[in-house]
Design goal:
Largest sheet: 5 strands, antiparallel
Oligomer: single chain
Number of helices: 16
Helix content: 40-55%
Number of strands: 7
Structural class: alpha+beta
Order of helices and strands: HHHHHHHHEHHEHHEHEHEEEHH
């Protein structure tokens, strides 16, 4: 399709949208997305690649606008010292409320969690902890229009526009596959959906119909959410019955080891030669690859851990060592509380 023809087509389609010149005071600050040339090109691409109806998709984009709240939420904090504080981060997720609610969730979904562990090798407490950190067991799944959030980030947030444009494409495909209007789906400010907060691409690739009803429903089915979290971790390399992390003591300057990243590369015995000593039960782990994890809190000593392959797998869900450690520590608290409850 030529650029001239595309321009004419969109001019006709946008002209079909109802206009209300008497409601100026209630109009949004920004024009609808359907008026942006980038969005028009995206719609044409969705038509040409995936067969979407141009007029229908244009009307959907005509009903959404750039969301300033989404843009504020996605940007890093302006004050540097607020960017990283392990203790401030930890208390949000590893606390009595999430442990208590998580123990209840575990009890209510015991059979499904046991089945997921048997199939995928992921411990039940890790599955529960991820769901607990993400949405507090389905209580807080987000109230943003996923279509509007993803469009905002795809077209008005240049630092990650390619990623979110891809997720917008995957979201529209996902909605069509499930027979749901994309305008009806709510989620996080970043476009994550449902009980486990899967991004659209992850849902299409990793989610599973774990309750056997011939549909994948991550918004209402705890069972589908449980199976999907376990499958996600399994497909990213989770090792059954393998360690996750151990606290560590550091002697000397750890700068080079921290700069090496959180992907395990050096055997634990090699880290010891560089001044990193694992605490706790490290028997039989000397040759297992590990990485140094630094958990920084302003004006406090840095907390060090060694993370193994399974710790790294958790960061594939959310690429943050703070996130992975919160999942791990909440899982440990849940395992202890669940065990005490069953005694």
């Amino acid at each position: 399709m030529s650029n001239k023809l595309a321009t004419l087509l969109f001019g006709v389609l946008v002209g079909m949208a109802p206009l209300n010149g008497h409601a100026a005071k209630t109009q949004p600050r920004t024009p609808p997305f359907s008026e942006a040339s980038e969005v028009r090109a995206f719609i044409l691409d969705m038509h040409e690649q995936h067969g979407f109806d141009v007029a229908h998709l244009t009307r959907q984009f005509a009903s959404i606008h750039s969301n300033a709240t989404v843009l504020r939420a996605i940007r890093p904090p302006a004050v540097p010292e607020l960017q990283r504080s392990w203790q401030r981060y930890r208390v949000r997720f590893v606390n009595e409320r999430r442990t208590s609610n998580g123990t209840r969730f575990w009890q209510e979904n015991q059979a499904e969690l046991a089945r997921a562990e048997a199939i995928y090798g992921v411990p039940q407490e890790i599955i529960v902890a991820i769901i607990g950190v993400e949405t507090e067991y389905g209580r807080n799944m987000g109230s943003f229009s996923v279509l509007e959030a993803l469009a905002t980030l795809a077209f008005d947030y240049p630092p990650r526009a390619p990623f979110f444009r891809s997720e917008l494409e995957q979201f529209l495909l996902l909605a069509r596959e499930n027979g749901v209007s994309p305008l009806e789906i709510k989620g996080s400010y970043a476009g994550a959906i449902g009980i486990p907060q899967f991004m659209p691409s992850s849902q299409r690739k990793y989610a599973v119909d774990f309750d056997g009803d011939d549909r994948i429903d991550l918004r209402q089915s705890n069972t589908d959410a449980i199976g999907s979290v376990a499958r996600f971790l399994n497909m990213h390399g989770w090792q059954a019955k393998a360690p996750i992390a151990l606290p560590a003591r550091v002697e000397g300057d750890p700068t080079a080891l921290i700069a090496a990243g959180i992907k395990p590369a050096a055997p634990l015995q090699e880290l010891a030669k560089q001044g990193v000593f694992a605490a706790g039960n490290s028997e039989g782990l000397a040759e297992r690859p590990a990485a140094l994890i630094d958990l920084v809190t302003p004006n406090q000593p840095t907390e060090y851990w060694v993370g193994f392959d399974n710790f790294y797998v958790i960061t594939r869900y959310n690429r943050s060592s703070f996130y992975a450690m919160s999942v791990f520590q909440l899982a440990e608290a849940l395992r202890e509380a669940h065990g005490m409850r069953n005694e």
